[in-house]
Design brief:
Helices cover 30% and strands 12% of the residues. Strand 5 (246-249) and strand 6 form a beta hairpin. It is α+β, with helices and mostly antiparallel strands and 422 residues long.
């Protein structure tokens, strides 16, 4: 390939470094899985581990080299097998979407290595920012493969979380619980919430992040802290549905973390489905916030201006919240006062994604992205709900105001918390 790019050498090198960092992190996650669990499917609604080891690099190769740059195939059979993941309605639908037999790991690894080599070659030598190629405008395909891998690292950990401890390597972590603080609420003034972003004003965004829309939001009250395991315990005792990560052992509730089964940490945020969050809020005489209300609580200010992050314009760092793979599990709510919003609301970014009551939908002037046209539009089905924020294992690159996550209302495996509003 001939070198012909508007990118500087420094920008090109940065892309290579981020891609390499992603690949190393993904490799470290696959190394946690014992060899005899490679084809395990701990979550029936997702493929087994083997799929993701081929899918992540396969997607990168297809998106950048095959589709954007017109490169020749590596192995068309494996490219088709690993092209796209699943989000089925049922385990039966999930089973029907997979092959009768998965390829041996040695073949998958060889395919992945070949994909990586071709991606690195393209990143070093190809034109990555061609304004005449819709897939490469603003280096879209490169940004796409970078963030795609970062999102799938979180997916991998959701799945790994459900794997028996004996079938994965253990990483020792220190956990802290503390006495619960009394529930507190704050008033958020009526004002404007800006959803999405203006095209061209951020280095990259997925198609559902565009275009910017301003929403008028009435005044409301919101929980300062997200609902904790201790808060939710009273709901369970009143007959509520048990959270997905809770286990009853010898008459006591315990919490299934990535590598431990702990006495229930009552000061940690409770991880629940959208259905469970909605039921709890209703039981309390409250409701979940809309996406616009989340934005208002997170980024709005009493002065009427909007912030880049809840704490201001400073870039995310380890003092602002529990995100960026600093740890695998939650910490007590309110542990990061430097990450609070202008209204004094804690943990709006970090410790888990936050459910909203908003059905996942396109923003005004939505246009499917050229590099990954099916990314969002297949999920505008009325069955998925918007989540905002970040979990402990969300890459810092994904922490931007316009980023939108989404899951089905009954999906039990995402790291998702919530808070209530009235």
């Amino acid at each position: 390939m001939q070198l012909q790019s508007l990118l500087s050498e420094a920008e090109r090198q940065t892309f290579c470094e981020i891609y390499e960092r992603n690949r190393k992190r993904s490799s470290s996650l696959f190394d946690l899985i014992h060899a005899d669990a490679y084809e395990e499917q701990p979550i029936a609604l997702r493929h087994p581990f083997v799929f993701y080891e081929g899918h992540i690099p396969g997607f990168s190769f297809l998106t950048l080299v095959r589709f954007a740059l017109g490169g020749v195939p590596i192995d068309e059979t494996l490219e088709r097998l690993f092209q796209r993941g699943i989000d089925p309605d049922s385990p039966e639908e999930a089973r029907a979407s997979g092959p009768t037999a998965w390829p041996k790991r040695s073949r998958v690894v060889a395919f992945a290595n070949h994909c990586d080599a071709r991606v690195y070659e393209a990143m070093r030598n190809a034109r990555l920012d061609d304004p005449e190629n819709p897939r490469l405008v603003g280096a879209e395909a490169v940004h796409t493969i970078i963030e795609h891998e970062q999102m799938h690292q979180e997916t991998l950990l959701y799945i790994l979380h459900q794997l028996d401890f004996a079938r994965k390597k253990r990483i020792l972590q220190r956990h802290q619980d503390r006495p619960q603080v009394a529930s507190r609420r704050v008033h958020v003034d009526a004002g404007i919430a800006t959803l999405g972003a203006v095209r061209g004003t951020i280095p990259f965004g997925w198609d559902n992040e565009f275009d910017e829309t301003r929403v008028s939001v009435d005044a409301f009250e919101v929980d300062v802290d997200s609902v904790t395991n201790g808060n939710f315990l009273a709901f369970i005792e009143a007959g509520g549905d048990v959270p997905p990560f809770w286990r009853k052992c010898d008459g006591e509730w315990r919490l299934l973390t990535q590598f431990d089964l702990l006495p229930l940490p009552k000061s940690w945020p409770v991880y629940v489905t959208h259905e469970q969050a909605t039921a709890y809020a209703g039981w309390k005489g409250m409701r979940l916030p809309t996406e616009a209300e989340y934005h208002r609580a997170a980024f709005g200010t009493p002065e009427g201006k909007e912030r880049t992050y809840p704490w201001g314009d400073a870039l995310p760092d380890a003092t602002r919240g529990n995100f960026g793979f600093a740890r695998y599990d939650p910490v007590p709510v309110g542990s990061y006062p430097r990450g609070a919003s202008a209204w004094g609301v804690n943990d709006l970014v970090g410790n888990a994604w936050e459910w909203t009551s908003t059905v996942f939908h396109p923003l005004p002037d939505f246009r499917a992205m050229a590099s990954y046209p099916v990314y969002s539009q297949d999920f505008f089905d009325g069955k998925h709900y918007v989540l905002k924020g970040a979990s402990p294992v969300t890459d810092v690159r994904l922490i931007r105001r316009s980023f939108r996550n989404w899951f089905r209302a009954d999906y039990r495996y995402v790291y998702a918390k919530f808070r209530c509003v009235t």
